[in-house]
Design brief:
Elements: H1 4-9, H2 25-41, E1 46-51, H3 60-64, E2 68-74, H4 96-104, E3 114-117, E4 135-138, H5 144-157, E5 163-167, H6 173-186, E6 190-195, E7 199-204, H7 215-219, H8 223-247, H9 253-257, H10 260-268
Parallel strand pairs: 1-2, 1-4, 2-3, 4-5
Antiparallel strand pairs: 5-7, 6-7
Helix pairs in contact: 5-6
The structure holds S-adenosylmethionine (SAM).
Length: about 280
């Protein structure tokens, strides 16, 4: 019978069967590759911070791994959570206590090491945290503004040799782009890459997660993440194509000439860059 750490190192998906996670199977393989790499890189023990936990799905390997000694789970559980794709969601029906009860059911879990904080980074300072996390995972509000706020918070909360990872990079990509430009301008040493399906990783300072297995081999398969992101966003290209097809229809020639299309776009806020 393999130990939990061996299961994580083998990216055994059965470790994620207790709680439904809002992630693909490849995302879960990435969570375990990161978990394993962090433990190995830190010499056996590390601390973890997650922003956006919901039912605790993405915490399952961390709560069971004795190498992960402490976990902070930041989640204010608001009634409405905005989303860069326009459709917001309501996650508030899952309380912190429900998450802790679910996590307790994960085989080998030590829920005592989980410190939940029911506030967002908009009302927290890094000094409010009970410890400096080695590794931060960001999966809270999926807008570029919130993701940037969370990333800047984590940058100030972590030590110099650390890493952060983001879920759903294909949704918050404008925020990631801004963050990367800020890091380049700051002169801070970093390396960024994506993992399948949609996990964007940034290592800082001396942190090197790809030197050990399974991360080394798993990172070689990052083409899967590239294709996943393009395919997942293809709905927007399809919609744009349809929009252009309709806009160029002869029936719209006169409204175009009269400037009515411009007026309609103005009323609907078209062309404005949303953050
Ligand atoms: C996509 S779910 C997280 C899924 C979870 N990580 C998993 O893999 O199962 C997003 C979570 O972010 C939380 N959230 C919303 N606004 C937030 C904020 N400002 N800061 C942190 N978390 C937030 C929501 O309450 C929700 O639980």
């Amino acid at each position: 019978m393999p130990t939990i750490q061996e299961q994580i190192d083998q990216q055994d998906l059965s470790l994620f069967k207790t709680i439904e996670s809002q992630s693909s199977e490849d995302d879960r393989r990435s969570f375990m590759a990161l978990n394993s790499a962090f433990r190995q890189w830190k010499g056996g023990k590390f601390t973890f911070l997650e922003i956006g936990s919901f039912k605790g799905g993405s915490l399952q390997s961390y709560v069971a791994d004795p190498g992960c000694t402490k976990i902070i789970s930041i989640d204010p559980r608001p009634k409405f959570v905005p989303d860069a794709r326009e459709k917001g969601g309501d996650y508030s029906h899952v309380t912190t206590q429900i998450m802790l009860d679910l996590l307790a059911k994960v085989p080998g879990a030590d829920v005592k090491k989980v410190i939940p904080i029911e506030k967002g980074t908009e009302s927290l300072k890094p000094a409010d945290l009970p410890f400096k996390p080695d590794f931060c995972f960001i999966d809270g509000e999926h807008t570029d503004t919130a993701m940037l706020r969370d990333a800047r918070f984590c940058l100030n909360a972590m030590g110099p040799d650390s890493a952060m990872a983001f879920h759903d990079g294909d949704i918050i990509y404008l925020g990631l782009d801004t963050l990367i430009h800020e890091l380049e301008a700051s002169g801070r040493e970093f390396r960024a890459y994506n993992l399948p399906s949609s996990v964007f990783v940034i290592e800082f300072g001396k942190c090197r997660l790809s030197q050990t297995e399974p991360m080394r081999s798993w990172r070689d398969q990052n083409y899967k993440g590239y294709l996943y992101a393009l395919v997942r966003n293809d709905v927007f290209r399809t919609t744009a194509r349809e929009y252009w097809r309709i806009a160029e229809h002869p029936a719209f020639k006169l409204p175009h000439k009269l400037g009515l299309v411009k007026v309609a776009k103005k009323i609907m806020g078209g062309g404005k860059k949303k953050k």
